Queue: 2 jobs
Job 1
Amino acid sequence: MQRRDFLHYLSAGAALGMMAPFGNLLAATGPTMPGNTGANGRVVVIGGGMAGTTVAKYLRLWGGTGVQVTLVEPNPTYISNIFSNKVLTGERTLTQLSYKYGTLTSKYGVKLITKSVVAIDPTGQQVLLNDGSKLLYDRLVIAPGIDFDALPMSGTAAAQAKVVHAWKAGVQTTSLQSQIKAMTKTDTFILTIPAKPYRCPPGPYERACVVADYLTRTAKTKGAKVLVLDANPGIQAEVENFTYAFKTIHKNITYVPNAVISSIDATTSISKVNTSVGSFSGKVVNAIPPHKAGKIITDNPLLASVGGRWAGVNVLSYESNTVPNIHVIGDAAATTQPKAGHIANAEAKVCADAIVHLLRGEAVNPSPMTNSACYTPITNTTASWLSVVYRYDPATGTMLPTGNGVTESSGINKDNHEEMLKWFSNLMSDTFA
Ligand SMILES: Cc1cc2nc3c(=O)[nH]c(=O)nc-3n(C[C@H](O)[C@H](O)[C@H](O)COP(=O)(O)OP(=O)(O)OC[C@H]3O[C@@H](n4cnc5c(N)ncnc54)[C@H](O)[C@@H]3O)c2cc1C
């Protein structure tokens, strides 16, 4: 297969080697809901993001009418994090990145409840919603994404409010966009990257590139600098492409590794970021704090079995290692796979397939495969990419990269930027349409 076809195949959301063999074909040609497939039960899904929406859709598509799926999500609209860096530069709007759940309910018969889950009762197999109501489940899928540790900060409330992460697309993205727009040519934009694991390994370096590109392309800000303070010892993804981009394309970027934040002195003009390798001052501070699984996981120490921060799962079904009948997918799960939207979509399909089999009293697929692809805008017209296919390894019980592992684009160019737009459109259609 040509790389282009391969990436389009991947981006159609294939979870390779799964036991619902026609799933991808159906998705590509316009799926029809099957009747009762012998799988019967109530599945509650917490979180309508990349992972939760996909699992809800595919549970119905592969499980049929006997699988009653209820999705609980507090927001009526999902705003994609993917491409939200392009909102910072004015190339996209949040409205263009907004997705609704209409198809999920009308086409696939998923029941949507626009509320939050505030507690889980694994013994009674029920969840409590923020309006006091309860939902019983036979299988529960939790896909709440991530939460953050608080960063130690000083300064007035107004000054502290300016220090945003914008790592969950929404109001913080808009705030950061305004702050970048207000910069002048003598200003510095500071981006801090937390120690791994964090969501979207190439994402922060991508942000540094597109902000540096915007600052250089805009007359008012040409000459402004980008300072990347990375808590990690080096660039975490696409090392060759980002090293080249930082050194050659965006000479206004300075990259500082091993910079673990100790505190931030926020002011409304110049803020100071104190780190393990020194203090740095900048006009705009975009601080991405250390990550952990969404609160509904960390509120339940039994579920947050990996350091009290992430959910340990069996990657054959994404069932929790510690709590039966509860599955965790997407960024909140601790696996060997990256925390990213494309792989969240793939994990969701492995999980949906496994639950359908379990509801039929059958064994789950013993050798699932997943895939991740990530396109990275480097400027407003060029991009790079990486892709990797994972296969279940029975010896370690983990998903391991196949072949040569992670493949990266051999360059940064306009073709990649065009393919990126198609990839994104396919991925979001597979998730929300
Ligand atoms: C700037 C940026 C760029 C990115 N670019 C890419 C990219 O190019 N490619 C890629 O693959 N990935 C990318 N990602 C990563 C990707 O967005 C995430 O990995 C992905 O969204 C994870 O999916 P998820 O379903 O686990 O979490 P989310 O998509 O965050 O969804 C979680 C959902 O759960 C809901 N929720 C939380 N708690 C509760 C509760 N108690 N009750 C009910 N609902 C709840 C939330 O409201 C939310 O809708 C990027 C991320 C960022 C920040």
Job 2
Amino acid sequence: MAKARRLVQENLKLVDVVIELVDARIPASSRNPMLAEISGKKPRVVVLNKADLADPALTRKWEDHYRALGFAAVAVDSVRGGGIKKVPALVKQQAGEKTISLGTAGRLPRSPRCMIVGIPNVGKSFFINRLVGQRAARTGNKPGVTKGRQWIRIGGMDLLDTPGILWPKFEDPEVAYKLAVTGAIKEEVFNIEEVALKLLDWLAANHPRALRERYGIEGELPGDPVVLLELLGGKRGLFQSGMVVDTLKSAVNLLKEFREARLGRFTLDLP
Ligand SMILES: Nc1nc2c(ncn2[C@@H]2O[C@H](COP(=O)(O)OP(=O)(O)O)[C@@H](O)[C@H]2O)c(=O)[nH]1
Ligand SMILES: [Mg+2]
């Protein structure tokens, strides 16, 4: 982790603008708290990725939140490409005066340089593929840049080809739970049933209708999340031998349906 952070720190020195990718469903929990420290006052474009899975009204609030902090903010869907086209203009706008003033000594203003930073699984590779598309043009190594680093010229900006990976704040149990629910961390490192029960508590309290409709439940939802998890498993025919519901399978299924936004587009962090 320390090595990855150093690499990000080194690469940050080369760029004018940082493109910070966050998960639009958890725009706070999917950030690395250290980025502010290691990037200093560098201009930033916050990309709320996976916006197709998040609550659109809350995504707008999060955009406003980041703009109020002085960043540019944009919601995107890196799978289908929504919002991606706005990114180069925001990078140029954020780089603004810096790159133009460098051009006043009789040279043409140079293109702003930027790099992408984000936690694992936030969608960095998908985002880069969408941004670069077919028009990718490698500009080769620039003087003074360590061999191996490549810049991709795209839409009037130069993008460092390898994104910076930073880690989320696993130590915080609330954050870890949200990372687990959204699929940002691997199933092996958390208790699936525990996460599913916590999610059921939240869904029953905030979106009971979505739960009832998705699973065809008539009347009130059971107050005990364990009973609810059994009920959902039963509705999906997930039985062990006999008529005992397989609660692990029920939990796995619930998380899958939640991550695919089958119960609705939800945002777990509030600005
Ligand atoms: N629905 C949705 N899924 C996305 C989006 N961007 C990435 N993903 C999914 O998120 C997962 C991780 O993406 P990837 O680009 O490999 O993440 P990386 O580790 O940051 O490079 C993949 O399974 C993608 O299908 C998006 O905008 N919307
Ligand atoms: Mg990747």
